[in-house]
């Protein structure tokens, strides 16, 4: 079966990541799902950014009025210096504009620097609902709670606003997290499909036979680093009742054959920065 094509941070190979333009293009290119990573503003609004630190993905460093907010924090064990989303109200964040995170790798995308706002999760849902209606196909959303324990410790839990936003949403949904505790809490509150993320440098114990059976107690899929994928892992996950979604394909590092090897291994979904290339590789399989 053809795997789901999940647009990683939108069509982030072609537009600054986590912008409505990036999600809109991903849908136009045929993606089945768009993937917003979610963090929270000072006033508790979920917005799409990959990190709490927003210096690399917005023009905040050029804004004199926010110079005093530059600071150093430890987020999940990493010391980071910059500007943090939780120190900005939504109104302040909305005055910023997105920039390409990887200008050296993707110089063509810098032509869009300064054009797009940071979208709220509600705005992402509204876009996907409108595009689903317009195109007559159900496009899904695949939100990730980013650093949920960190946000909880500063009084900005991500889970309740996420479930509130999804309450009236008829779109296909997967909710993903690297934190098992976060997913277990969500499992107790929602029947939405949940995805345990596993990085090659992280909780690889979760993708052993025993680990997968434990994950199946609270999740419906594993979202695994593509380096971890093998036919054996996919077979073990399927035996445990879990789908396997692999991340992340990008034109700069992955060939069509690399994509096809993941499909041949039996994965059920593919995260990609370039949805059109991934769809083409699947079609040619
Ligand atoms: O969510 C799957 C994949 O996106 C996890 O990695 O760091 O891009 O959020 P990251
Ligand atoms: Ca993600």
Question: Could you characterize what this model shows?
Answer:
This protein has 285 residues and is α/β, with parallel strands linked by helices. The chain has one domain: TIM Barrel, CATH 3.20.20.190. The protein has 10 helices and 13 strands. The chain has helices at 20-28, 90-93, 121-135, 148-153, 159-166, 180-187, 209-215, 231-239, 256-265, 275-284, and strands at residues 4-8, 33-35, 37-40, 46-48, 71-75, 78-82, 140-141, 144-145, 175-177, 194-198, 221-225, 243-249, 269-272. It has an 8-stranded parallel beta sheet with strand order 7-2-1-13-12-11-10-9, with helices on one face. The chain has a 3-stranded mixed beta sheet with strand order 4-3-8, covered by helices on one side. α7 (209-215) links the parallel β10 and β11 (221-225). The model has no long low-confidence stretch (mean pLDDT 98). The structure holds SN-glycerol-3-phosphate and calcium ion. The site of SN-glycerol-3-phosphate has 10 residues, from β12. Residues 3-282 form the GP-PDE domain. This is glycerophosphodiester phosphodiesterase. It is an enzyme of class 3 (hydrolase). It catalyses: a sn-glycero-3-phosphodiester + H2O = an alcohol + sn-glycerol 3-phosphate + H(+).
């Amino acid at each position: 079966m053809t795997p789901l094509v999940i647009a990683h941070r939108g069509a982030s190979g072609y537009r600054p990541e986590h912008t409505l333009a990036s999600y809109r293009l991903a849908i136009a290119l045929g993606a089945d799902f768009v993937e917003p990573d979610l963090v929270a503003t000072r006033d508790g609004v979920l917005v799409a950014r990959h990190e709490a630190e927003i210096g690399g993905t917005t023009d905040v460093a050029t804004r004199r009025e926010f110079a005093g907010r530059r600071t150093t924090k430890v987020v999940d064990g990493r010391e980071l210096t910059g500007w943090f989303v939780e120190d900005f109200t939504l109104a302040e964040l909305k005055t910023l504009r997105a920039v390409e995170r990887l200008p050296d790798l993707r110089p063509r995308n810098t032509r869009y620097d300064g054009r797009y706002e940071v979208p709220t999760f509600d705005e992402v849902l509204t876009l996907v609902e409108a595009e689903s209606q317009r195109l007559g196909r159900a496009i899904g959303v695949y939100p990730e709670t980013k650093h949920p324990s960190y946000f909880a410790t500063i009084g900005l839990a991500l889970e309740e606003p996420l479930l509130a936003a999804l309450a009236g949403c008829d779109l296909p949904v997967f909710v993903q997290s690297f934190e098992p505790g976060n997913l277990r809490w969500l499992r107790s509150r929602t029947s939405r499909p949940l995805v345990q993320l596993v990085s090659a440098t992280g909780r690889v114990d979760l993708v052993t036979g025993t680990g997968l059976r434990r994950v199946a107690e609270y999740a419906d899929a594993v979202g695994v680093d593509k380096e971890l994928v093998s036919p054996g892992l996919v077979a073990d996950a399927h035996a445990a009742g879990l789908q396997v979604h692999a991340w992340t394909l990008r034109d700069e590092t992955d060939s069509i054959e690399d994509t096809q090897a993941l499909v041949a291994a039996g994965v059920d979904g593919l995260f990609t920065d370039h949805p059109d290339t991934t769809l083409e590789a699947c079609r040619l399989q």
